[in-house]
Amino acid sequence: MNLAGKVAVVTGAGSGIGRATAHAFVSAGARVAVCDIDRARIDALALELGERAIVATTVDVSDRAAFAAFADEVQARAAVDYVVNNAGVAVGGSFLDTSLDDWDWLLGVNLRGVVHGCHFFAPRMVERGVGGHIINISSIFGIYAAPQVSAYVASKFAVLGLSQSLRTELAPHRIGVTAICPGMINTSIIEGGRMVGGIGASRSKLARTFTRGAKPSLVASTILGAIATNPAVRTVGKDAWAMHQLTRFVPAVTRSMGSRLAKLLT
Hints:
By secondary structure, this protein is an alpha/beta fold. The protein is about 55% helix and about 15% strand. It has a single domain (about 5-265), classed as Rossmann fold (3-Layer(aba) Sandwich), CATH 3.40.50.720. It has a seven-stranded parallel beta sheet with strand order 3-2-1-4-6-7-9, with helices on both faces. A two-stranded parallel ribbon has the order 5-8. The termini are far apart.
């Protein structure tokens, strides 16, 4: 893709999917505005991107005022064509083991962070009148309601639903909206997450399992492809594709898988 002259915003860009996506946009000729909650990571990314990064700063996406300040700074420097609401965290464990503090933390980043990204950038995109695209990172767990991760499932189902509703609303303005639903990706989401109950006891094993996942660059290339083709939903990885098909066509199998998984993790 040739994205010369375009500007993309990527949240949670300090590592994993966000970092790969920022590099993918720059490789395609775009400039980027990037943020992350981790200062060291975003500073390192800024050095890698050089002058192609118009803004690179720390932002807690769950913080309304902080996100508003970030959006104002970005839009004072350039008109935004693409927004990738990528920042996300994980909470693993049963509903009974998940505290309300865990829910607040998770929904603040995974859902409110996406809402903030849409709220503070979409209106200007509409006013500009030249179209654009919003990418929201959901998950295969936004399609398949796996047990023992009920809070995470709730956040990702919400992102998927928001994306599909917003897609219809913004279509008359030529602004596409796509929910990206990755399967297992080799990122540090487990190490940085909150794991409780049975999952908490197996955190190290689960983290090692994720190292066998698909590369973040696969998600990044899927994001750029979605900008070109404007699908409503796009899974990433063979595991996510297979689970999506099972959920659609043989839901009894996924229910059985969920029951077995719940027994293994409790």
